[in-house]
Design brief:
There is one protein chain. The chain is an alpha/beta fold. It has helices at 2-38, 77-86, 89-97, 138-144, 161-178, 199-205, 207-216, 222-231, 234-257, 301-312, 315-334, 345-349, 364-368, 384-391, 404-422, and strands at 48-50, 54-60, 66-73, 126-131, 147-152, 155-160, 182-185, 261-268, 286-289, 352-355, 358-360, 372-380, 395-397, 400-402. It has 2 domains: 2-103, no CATH class; 126-422, Zn-dependent exopeptidases (Aminopeptidase). The chain contains 15 helices and 14 strands. The protein starts with a helix and ends with a helix. The structure holds zinc ion. Zinc ion is lined by residues 132-133, 146, 161, 266.
């Protein structure tokens, strides 16, 4: 009898001991993920608690004290992980605001299968593509300040980034669809915003209501509202207000589509060549993933929810894998090296380096888009060779007149995505 009791208590001890070991390793894993990937300035410690019970997010009061806002116990970790990607942020925030736990959402599991048939078949794979910016002409490009215009080697160079990104996205869409993928673009036409209309149409039809509702939601104050409605120039309306709404609309569209992966397409410039009135010799590629929150970037509930999701899920880890495949493809196909962190101040100030050319950065879209998402910045448009290449309309593919260089960029995205999915 005594031996039996001893055996039972020994087994119980082993069990408790291994449970504690498990909790210790979870605590270690999530703490080190925050330190290495999410907290750029090592200043976010008051916003989270990781202890023997679970992971908890804290909010700040007006008096600068912190209180527990929401979180997850270790025993419910796996379910809550899945819920964060399954439900939209509005539903999740409603649960947080009501003081309830995520389990009240009544999640039941559905398996979304990802597979590749044969060599390159992408049937069953859903891919979202966001062509960065809006402009389809120089006038709109000047409004969003995303263009290159100067004379070089007796040639007048005029490049609109929104045109390059849309052409790249459309070619990539065709390439992926040929292999059976289902592809969604956040905007499909020149000058089209994520709301499906031009900025000018949006100003006429939606601007006033949008400002009113932003004010009601405390996203802007009365003073900002009055400024926008009475004094702001179109450029100020665009840059201080509309741009953010357009970004959120892009994220909303992508999340509703629930893709297996999302690709945000941009073309870069040399940061140190400011005003971009002359060409630069420099040329690099870089890819951003989510993470690297700065110290003032957990003030809003939606930001704390995004932080929590990025911490719990393996979205960032998967995104890094996609990013690494893409940067390799960009390097090889475009013959342009990956950026190291010395090439631009924003890489040291705002980013956490993950590997050569791959950086965690807390951009609106890397933060709000759920699942696997990368933000590509290929080539410097103001580079001496690229500015000439990118200005030419010297090829046509799928009925799209474009530069042969843009076609190569689309192909590089395609190859990078395929090599990621194959693994
Ligand atoms: Zn851009």
């Amino acid at each position: 009898m005594r031996i039996l009791l001893l055996t039972i208590s020994f087994n119980l001890m082993c069990l408790l001991c291994s449970a504690q070991k498990n909790v210790d390793s979870l605590k270690h894993f999530y703490t080190s993920k925050i330190e290495t990937l999410l907290d750029k300035e090592k200043a976010l410690q008051p916003y989270y608690t990781i202890n023997d019970s679970g992971i908890f997010i804290n909010a700040k009061t007006k008096e600068n004290t912190f209180y527990r806002e929401f979180g997850v116990e270790w025993s419910k970790l796996d379910t809550v992980k899945k819920m964060l990607n399954h439900f939209n942020d509005d539903s999740l925030l409603a649960v947080i605001n009501s003081g309830k736990t995520f389990s009240t959402l009544g999640y039941s599991e559905t398996n979304r299968k990802q597979y590749i048939e044969n060599n390159k078949k992408l049937s069953g794979i859903k891919i979202a593509i966001d062509p960065g910016h809006i402009a389809g002409d120089m006038k709109t490009a000047m409004l969003e300040k995303k263009y290159i215009q100067f004379n070089y080697n007796n040639q007048s160079i005029a490049i609109v980034e929104g045109v390059l990104t849309l052409q790249t996205a459309l070619i990539l869409k065709h390439r992926l669809e040929e292999q059976g993928a289902k592809v969604m673009l956040t905007r499909e036409k020149p000058n089209q915003t994520a709301f499906g209309i031009t900025f000018k149409e949006w100003l006429e039809k939606k601007f006033k209501n949008a400002v009113d509702s932003s004010c009601k939601l405390n996203e802007i104050n009365e003073q900002e509202k009055t400024f926008l409605l009475t004094k702001a120039t179109q450029r100020e309306m665009f840059r201080t207000y509309f741009n953010n709404l357009d970004m959120r609309q892009r994220a909303k569209k992508i999340n509703e589509f629930a893709p297996d992966l999302s690709v945000i397409i941009h073309y870069n410039v040399d940061e140190k060549n400011t005003e971009w009135k002359k060409p630069t010799e420099k040329n690099y590629n870089m890819v951003f993933t989510a993470g690297s929150f700065l110290k003032a970037e957990l003030e809003k509930p939606i930001d704390r929810l995004s932080f929590f999701r990025l911490l719990l899920t393996d979205d960032t880890e998967q995104s890094t894998k996609l990013a690494e495949n893409l940067i390799n493809s960009f390097t090889g196909k475009l013959n342009v090296p990956p950026a190291d962190s010395t090439v631009a101040d924003y890489l040291t100030k705002y980013c956490i380096a993950e590997s050569k050319g791959v950086y965690a950065r807390n951009l609106t879209l890397t933060r709000l888009v759920k699942g696997v998402v990368i933000y590509g910045e290929t080539l410097y448009q103001d580079n001496t060779a690229e500015c000439i290449q990118l200005s030419k309309l010297n090829t046509e593919v799928y009925g799209i007149k474009t530069s042969a260089r843009v076609r190569q960029v689309a192909e590089a995205y395609y190859e990078g995505i395929i090599s990621y999915l194959k693994k």
